[in-house]
Structures are given as structure tokens and as C-alpha cells.
Amino acid sequence: MREIRTGKLIQSTREAQRLTSAELVNGICSRRTLTRLETGQTDCDMLLFAVLLQRLGKSPDKLEYIFSWEEYRKECIRDWFVECVFKKRKKWAEQAIRMYWEKTEGIGTVHRMYLCRGRAMVAYWIDGDAGAAERWLEKALDATFPHWRCSVLEECRVSAMELENMLALVRMRRELREDVQELLQSCGHYISRFVTDGEEHAKIFCKYAWLEAQQELEQECPGDALQLCLSAIEELRQYGIEYFMRPLLDMTLRCYEQLEKEIGEEGESSCFPENGCECGEWEEECRRFAKDCGREAQGGCGREIPVISRERCRIYLKILRTLHCRFGESWYPSNSILYNCCQKSYHLDYEILRTERGPRGQRQPGKTEPKAAVNRRSASGGRRFARAMGRIGLTRERKSSFVITDSFETLELRREIQKYVGRKQYDRVKEALSRLEQRLDMGIFENRRTIQLLRNMVDIDGETRSFEEMLAEDLELLKKTYRFVPASCQNTETALQSGEEKTEKYKAEETGSISRAPLQNETDVVNQIAVLLDRLGRGEESLQLYEWALQTFRKSRVQKKHRFLSYGLLLGNAAAEKCSATESGRALRYGLRCGKLSFLGNDYLTLACAMEDEQSNHEQCKQMINEAYFLFELSYDDHKQTIVRDYYAENYKGCVQGA
Measuring CA to CA, which residue among 607, 524, 608 is closest to residue 570? Predict the structure, then answer.
């Protein structure tokens, strides 16, 4: 089995882009550090690693991280600081900055950049001092990109984090009535050319488009502004991102108002339809006007952008505001350039390795893990850690992908398949799955497990194979690396024990002991097992499995927001299985907290149905189901949108209002 390292992932991506070591690390670390990282001789902290990937145009969210406790503490301090800023708690924000400086002093310019960025956030969001924020943002840029004032941006490589610093600087200078056009356009050109990962592009382009659209409106170019907003909204929709959707929808409405005024002045149209887009005439008029007005949006997604009517914008914006008002956190920002949706996948090394020793400290037969890991200290050294993971059946580094590969294009394909699965687009899944299998080393177990799991998803949808057979396969796949499930789910000879007598650890599980939180691949298998149990009429066991798996996440010291893909999937499905208003409300709060759009429709529909079952306010349930229809429309979930439309027609004897 060939060795695949995340350092190799950086090296192969850098070489494919014909980028030298000096060009990549300029301002953030030494070439020697990069060489040692690429060759697997050393590891680096999360912040530096994220900046390196972003400078290559890639997303660090495509990986799964197994942290030491000390490394994870730094991540928690960063999160705590940001939350204190938006809650206007200056004293606690200052304390978080001091703690972070104590833990990172002298270990790199990237951390110095982050501290200056943090000071800028305090100055703007708490003190309301745009001038001070501008000075701190300039210092943040000086820390990792000292020639930003005189260099041509496209001749350098900068990370999304550094681009955010530039865009935040543009925002401050706009408020201070300074000229920003040159810097803003440089950011747009750079994003268009070098940010190649789709999700990463969506997250940074939406912020650029929002600022650029304001510039265009001030220069009385609403057509250009509309194109920018629609392009950014389209990218957020494609990747299921809710964060920054509201300010863009609001800006789009402003564009429509100015367009209506200009078109009316030209005598081409004197009225603005309030019923949306039944005949499509207004959309065509806006499309023509926008194209005649100016250029295509810089850095857009490269496709023809669908026009969203003013009425649709109002509907989407009203629903998102309602959700945030009812389920969101009051401090949560809507338009901060330096804030991002949370799509993390973190684990702690000692939780994984300690659990595998068995309950009450008993080691599994033939298993030896570093004693330091059990005592909440890291299994130091990349090779030592990899050996420890190998002994429990996992081909993992501290920074690993959901499939084991040294190609970012393969990781992007895997995430694309996940998007198709969420939207029930199984024809696309089958086509992409064939390409994924060709790109993976199938000698690696985790890759074989991923392919088999995806095949089973297609077969479950088409009911082309026996559910019992697929359940047996999934249990076999899970047992290779995961050793705990509820006893009631082990009542067949194909369960995790594979015919062996129950060991003490399974007896301990029956009495309530909790295993480690599963990794992402393991979570997908657990979820599929629960789905198959439900299809086989074993709903109680399915629900028990969901509740048990969720409990493993809640017992972990890793915050749930740092496990969006895993925890969000199980939480939403468990709420749907129970049809629980309480659980679906919790799932909605979680999705909004992480800034994700893809799960909101499902969770909101579950809430509406649960309230309906409880015979709550009939008109309110009707309105919520109507709004769920538009959430599915916004996230391009045609399958669920059709289901909701038919359900609404059957139960409320009419069409979805506004559709």
C-alpha cells in the first residue's frame, strides 16, 4: 500500500500549478519549513496549514483533522474571541487575545496576522472606530504580505484569509470615504483567476460581490451590480451556504429598485410586477438591461446566471430573517467580512486512541497505544501517530481527507457527489462515482468503504438489492474501524461481532458506556445502517442508533459546531425519524449557527409536520410548509420541493403561495 500524506497533497498541488516554494510561502514561513512539511518530516499548526492550502486556491474544509488537546485549544480560543466580539464583550475579547498571544508568541507571522485582524474586529464591531480598524488591517496585511501596497496582486499568492483582510480594508476605507476601486478590482481579478475550489470561491466571492455591487450602485450602474449579486447568490446556492446570503438578497432588492427607476425613466417599462415572474417578461427585461449596461460579473461562476425576481428575493430574504429571528443566536453576524460559515471536521487524538483501549482502561487484545495519548497528551510525531492509527485500522494522519488521496481534484469530486446525494440526484451520483473509483487507490480500505457506501446509497434509492444484504455489508464495513454500537442493533450474525462471543466491551455498551464520536466515513456508514433498519421495519432500532451516535458527539470535548457534516446529518435525520418539534428546532439552530443552507429546508419541514401532528396552529403550519417549499427551491433540492408542493396541494387544497 503506497503512503499518502497531506504534505504530498500540498506538494502535488503546488507543482501542478508550477509554483515555487518561495512563491507559496512568501511572508508566512521559510522554504525549509515547507520542504519538511511536504516530505513528511514535520507537521505544522492548523492556521499555517489553512493559509498554505488557501494560497493554492484550495479549501481546508475538505479535510478531517485529529488534533492534540493543545492545538484544539488554540482553535477554541479563536472561536471564543470571535463570539465575544459580536456579543460586544470587549473585556472577554481582550482576554482571549492575550491568551492567544501567550500560546502563539514567536511561532510565526500567520499568528501575528491573526492577532492584528482580531484587533481590527474589536475596533470596528465594539468600538465603532473604522479608522483604528483600518490601521490594524494594514498591520495584518503587512505581517504576511508586506508588499501589498506596491505589488500587483495577480503576481503573488495570497490566502482567502488575506483576501478577507483586504476586503475588510476596502469596507473600512469606503466608510471613511477613501478611494477603494483599484484595491477592490485587484481582489476581484485574483479571486477569478486563482481561487479554484468551488466552495472556497463561493465563500470569498460573495463578500467581494457585495462590496463591488455597492460601488456599482453608487456609480449608477445597477445592471453590473445585479449581475454581481446574482452570480454570488448562485454560487452560495450551489454549495449550500447560508452565511452572507441575506446581505446579498438585500443588495439585489436595491438593484431592482434602481433598475426599475432607470427603466421607467427610459420609457421601456412603467410598472414593476409584484407577483414575481409568472410570464418571465420582467426577468428578460432585467437580463437584457443588465447585459447592455456593462460587463459580466468579475470572478463569477462562469455559467449563465438565472435571474431571481424581486418578489422571489423578498420571499427568500423574509424566510431567512424569520429563521434567524426564531432559531438563530442574537449575536450572529450577517455581513462580517471576517466571519465564515462553519464547516469543520475535528477530532481529538486522545479520545480516539483512549477509547480503543476498551472500557475502564482495559486494552483490546493485541492493541497497544501510546500511553501519552491516553493521558491527554499527544502521540507526538507524525509517524508515531500514523502507526498508532494503523493499529486501529485507520490510514490516517492528523490532517487527512475523507477519501485517501493526494489529489485535490479527487477531494472536490467526492464533495460534489455528496452534494448530489443530498439532493437525491442519483443519476449524477452514478456517473461521478465511476470517475471517483478510477482516481482512488482501491488497495486502501477507507477508499473501498467510501465506494461501497455510495453504491449502496444508489441501490437503496432504486431498491435494486436486498436491504438485508446491504445492512450486512454496512455492518461489516463499520466493524473494521469502529467497535461500539447499541446491543439491539447486533441481533444478527452479521453484526459487528462477526459470530464471536460478546466481549466485556459489548457488555459495557449494553449498560450505557459511550464510544468515541465516529469519523466522517464512519458516520456515513452509521447513518446508512439507520436508514436500512428503518426500511426493514425496525424503526425503534434505527432511532436508538441515531440517539446513541448523537450521544457520542455530545460526550466529546470537541464542540458540535466543529463537526457539521457528521453531527448535522445525524441530528436532522433523528429529528425526522422522531418527527419531533424539539429536535427539529435544535437542528435548525445548529444549521443556522454553522451558516449552512443545505439542511434548513429538511429541518424546517420536519418542524412544521411535528407541529401539525401536535395539532398546533393550523395556519402557522400551513405557512411554514409553504416557506419550506421556498427553502428547498433556494437550495436546489428539486426532489423535496416536488414532495412539499404535492403535500401542500393534498392537505391544504391549493397551490403553494407565490410559486
Answer: 524
345: three-class secondary structure by DSSP: strand
Give pairs for 127-134: CB < 8 Å, separation 24+: 127/90, 130/172, 130/175, 130/176, 131/172, 131/176, 133/168, 133/172, 134/169, 134/172, 134/173, 134/176
What whole-number distance in Å separates Cα of residue 446 and Cα of residue 450?
6
Burial class of residue 270 (count of CB atoms within 10 Å of its CB; 0-12, 13-18, 19+) = exposed
Separation of first and last alpha carbons in the chain: 54
CA gap 364, 355 in Å, rounded: 10
The DSSP call for residue 596 is: B
What are the residues whose beta carbons fall under 8 Å from the beta carbon of 161, sequence distance 6 or more? 50, 51, 54, 113, 114, 117
pLDDT at 62: 85
Residue type, 236: L
Nearest 5°: the CA angle 342, 75, 344 is 30
pLDDT in tens, 189-231: 999 999 999 999 999 999 999 999 999 999 999 999 999 999 9
DSSP 400: E
Residue 84 has which C-alpha cell?
465575544
Burial-class residue 191 by CB neighbours within 10 Å (0-12, 13-18, 19+). buried
Q: Hunting for cell 499555517 — which residue is that?
A: 48
Contact 207, 337 (CB under 8 A): yes
> How confident is the model over 295-352, as pLDDT tens digits?
343 444 445 677 888 999 999 999 999 999 999 999 999 999 999 988 889 999 888 8
User: By the 8 A CB rule, do 279 and 314 touch?
Assistant: no
Residue 118 has pLDDT above 70, yes or no: yes
Regarding pTM above 0.85, the answer is: yes
One-letter-per-residue 3-state SS of 144-185: HCCCCCCCCHHHCCCCHHHHHHHHHHHHHHHHCCCCCHHHHH
Q: State the number of CA atoms in the 13 A half-sphere of 643 facing the CB.
A: 13
* Cα gap 569→580, rounded to integer Å: 16
φ, ψ at 572 (rounded to 5°): -65, -40
Name the residue with cell 468503504: 449
How far apart are the C-alpha atoms of 47 and 564, rounded to whole Å?
Answer: 19
Report the distance separating Cα 154 and Cα 170, nearest Å.
18
CA 357-403-382 angle, 5° bins: 50
User: How does DSSP classify residue 495?
Assistant: S
Three-class DSSP category at 31 = helix
Residue 346 pairs with which residues in a beta bridge? 65
- Give CA–CA dist 382/380, Å, rounded: 7
Stated as kind and residue range, the H or E segment containing 253 is: helix 245-266
Distance CA 637, CA 643 (A): 10
Helices (H), 500-599: 504-510, 520-535, 539-555, 569-578, 581-593
